[in-house]
Amino acid sequence: MKRYCDTCRQYCDEEAMFCPTCGQYTVATEVERIAPEGDVIYPFAHYQMSYKDTFLYVMGKKFMDTDGRASRREFFQFIFLWNVVIICILAVFCALTAIFKTGPYLLGLAWMIISILGLVSFVPMVALCVRRLHDTGKGSDTLLLFFVPFVGPLIALGLLSKKGQPQDNQYGSALQHIVIDKRLASIMKVSPTSSSLTTKVLIAVIVSALCVSGLSMRYMAPSDKTISMGWFANAVVGEGSEEAAEASVKEYFNAVNNKDYDKAFTYVIDQAKANPTEKQKWIESMKKAPKVDVVSLGVSQVSRVGNLKRITFEANLQMTKPSEGAVEATHTKRYISVIEENGAWHIEGFYKDDPNDK
C-alpha cells in the first residue's frame, strides 16, 4: 500500500500521513510499489492476468484471503482452467484404461486424484467467490444461496457473473483491468495478458479431451452396446465378460429346455457341484421348470472384489407351460447373479428381487 499526494502528484510511503514535500494530507491508495522504471505497480487483482498467473494467484497468494475484490475475468479464468485440468485427467486415465485394459483401477485412481484436487481447491475457490461478490458490492453471506434448493444456486451464479462496480466500495478500490504487455510483464515477473488465442486453444483442448474420453468409453464397451453400462461392465470385470456371462445364462436355459440337465448343471457355480444335496436341489428345480425363453438381459450391477467378479442381470423371461389343453405363456422378471470361476461364468442364483438391494 502507498499514500498519494494530490498536490505534488506523487506517491509516499504507507506511514507518511502528510506529504514530505508540501506537507499536504495524503490519501491511502492500492499501490504495492513503484518500479525502478517509474511504473506504478498495483495489486494483482487490478491486472488482466494470464491463465497461469491467475491460477497461481488464486491457489497461492489468495489461498484463504477473502479481502479485496476479484474481477469477472479472474473468476472465469480460474474456473475454466480448473475444469480443463479435471477433464484432461479424466481423458488421460480413460485412454490408459482402454489401451491397457486395467479394469476399474486406473479410473478409481483418477477419481481419487480429482477428489484430492477438489478438496485442495475448495477453500481458494470459496475465497475467490467472496472476492467476486465484493466486486459487485455483495457480502460473503450471499454464498448461502447455494444452499437454497433449485433456484438458489442459479441466483448465486448470476450474481457471481455480474459486472463489478466501477467505483470504490466498502471492500476496496475499483478494479482497473490493466493489460499486461511484455514490458510490464518483465517488470512484474509475470506472463503477459492471455490473448483470445489462448482461450481458443484451451477450448480445443477441452473438446479433444472429451472426444478422447468418449472414444475410450466406446472402445471399452461391447460392440453392440451404446449405453454407459456397457463400457462400465468392461472396465470393472474385463472386456468380453458381459457377453460371456450372457452366453452362459442363455446356454443354461437352452439345456434345461432340452432336458439336458447334466449340461445345464455345468453352468452352475462350483460350490453347488461339490455338494450332492445342492446338486439334487438344482436338478429337481430344472425338472419342474417350464420352458423359458430369454427375451432380454440387462446388467443391473457389476462388482469385483479381489479375483471375484460378479454380474447381476435383470432378465425379462417368457415362461411357457401347458395349461388345460392350451399353451400358456407369461412374461416375468428375474434377477440372475453370475460369477466367474476359473475363467468361466457360472450362475450363482435366481432372485425375484434385486439381491443388491438387500
From TrEMBL:
Keywords: Membrane, Transmembrane, Transmembrane helix. The chain crosses the membrane at residues 79-100, 106-130, 142-161, 201-221. It comes from the Bacteria. Pfam families: DUF805. PANTHER family: INNER MEMBRANE PROTEIN YHAH-RELATED, INNER MEMBRANE PROTEIN-RELATED-RELATED. This is DUF805 domain-containing protein.
